[in-house]
Specification:
homodimer, about 300 residues, alpha/beta, 8-stranded parallel beta barrel, about 45% helix
């Protein structure tokens, strides 16, 4: 149940920062700050992997995709909901797939958006660390004391700051009496917590989820969080563009210090195969193209 | 995977409101708006139920507690984190225990604090409905479009509004430029969404999580949410008092329309047995005492 390689001597273990370093190293090795989002749904996967047992289908599909994308990208993001919807059997598949991803040398982001009081967060952290995740996504609405147990367990965390769903502004874009928006206020909390968990590259293991379609506000968020890695979902299929990414990146940095981790899901995992091409070849090519595209964008 | 008894014809199924009615009826039958929080941890449970396999311990303990409290209380709240920390085996135990709780006629609140964009929320909703939950706890930071899939799946939802952890004020008590706090703003969103999901009692299937220790702000929250059921954790062990509950309840109403569901966990499930008394007898007595206490508080 413990994730830290050494017993922690301080209230928060310093090892969370190693996750930031590992991610930076993985991006440097692959040359591009991208992440393939694994959101498997039965309706969208190729007929070739569909079985009577939905969990068998999800597993076959996800394992194939992992093998196909691993050569091209440094990281994958598992959408926990797609697995959890099948109950404990789905969670068992999720754990097996995370294990495979680790074996392939991929940095694993577990996108489960938990956010609870400290003691419950510590349980979620134990679960994520045992499963083999390197990073998790976390909600900060309860305050960032609910994020600290994840860091104490040796995990990096991306805190929800500004999301790309249609009604996200209803809370996140509200202006506080003191000036900043709720999202900017959350950004300040993230930056503050992140100071103590900076890796050798200067980037922090406490990052932020910032949707690709929020570039109008993203310049301000980058100013609030200069040393945070932005996990950026919504690129491609959801409408995020290269220009959006350019606004969010740390300028004049090599890819591994650009402070972004651009995530695409559907455009990669459901890439259309050409006549006679195996579906996994199409997935591999889409991953490679994504990596090249984003490498050029952050350059 | 579908929870609604009839195929929905409107974008959101009307059946979520039935959950509010079922909870009201269960409270009326037991005479007190209380809920036992099931947060099993190995460290705190009696030696008698500890086994080598942690999941066997959690299951034995939780099943015993369910039997012991069912005669006295209308509802239980499962803290998902305590089960998830043991991976898929823990989730399997959770599902088995939820099934038992339903069989005992208890209203089941699944406290898993999920909050994601619509499509991911619909997966979480399918999981919760399949497992047999009647209500879930949900985060609204992404906007309440992420809450709607739970209602569409026929579940009631308690949205996180004001929590009782030490640093909860860091976000929730910030004042908006327009006047209300972030929590009050969230309350207004909850009230608005809840209008469409009102049961025959007038209470809505969209409720709010409001910590028992937040009574200083709770009067204002009640004014913002007159027809919401407040799920109130933190009574007893965490410091919430009878006076706190009095401020939060809808005044001059019978228990089932008091608009509160007061949750106690440790003070019930880890109740100390007297010399010669079986631990489950102590748990049953503590549940009965809690129910009487809260019945008198809301009267």
């Amino acid at each position: 149940m413990t994730a830290a390689p050494t017993a922690p001597t301080a209230p928060t273990s310093p090892t969370a920062s190693l996750q930031a370093d590992a991610l930076v190293a993985a991006i440097a090795a692959k040359g591009s700050p991208v992440c393939v989002g694994l959101d498997p749904t039965l309706e969208q996967m190729p007929a070739a992997v569909r079985r009577d047992d939905p969990c068998a289908s999800i597993e076959l599909f996800t394992r194939g995709v992992l093998d196909a994308v691993a050569p091209a990208v440094p990281a994958v993001k598992f959408q926990s909901a797609c697995f959890e919807r099948f109950g404990w059997r789905g969670v068992r598949v999720l754990e097996a797939c995370i294990n495979q991803a680790r074996g392939l040398g991929l940095v694993v982001v577990l996108d489960f958006k938990r956010g609870d009081i400290g003691i419950s967060s510590s349980h979620y952290a134990a679960a994520a660390a045992s499963a083999g995740a390197h990073f998790v996504t976390v909600s900060g609405y309860l305050g960032l004391s609910g994020v600290e147990p994840f860091l104490a367990a040796g995990l990096g965390a991306f805190v929800l700051v500004r999301t790309s769903n249609p009604d996200s502004s209803a809370v996140q874009s509200e202006k506080l009496a003191t000036g900043p928006t709720v999202a900017e206020h959350m950004a300040a909390l993230v930056k503050n917590l992140g100071e103590k968990h900076r890796g050798t590259s200067g980037l922090s293991a406490v990052g932020a989820v910032v949707g690709a379609t929020q570039s109008r506000e993203a310049g301000a968020l980058r100013a609030h969080m200069p040393d945070q890695i932005f996990l950026i979902p919504g690129y491609g299929a959801q409408g995020g563009t290269a220009e959006d990414i350019r606004i969010m990146r740390r300028a004049s940095q090599p890819p591994e210090k650009s402070g972004v981790l651009v995530t695409a899901s559907r455009s990669v995992i459901y890439a259309k195969a050409n006549e006679g091409q195996h579906w996994l070849e199409a997935v591999g090519t889409a991953a490679k193209n994504l990596a090249h595209e984003i490498r050029d964008v952050v350059a």
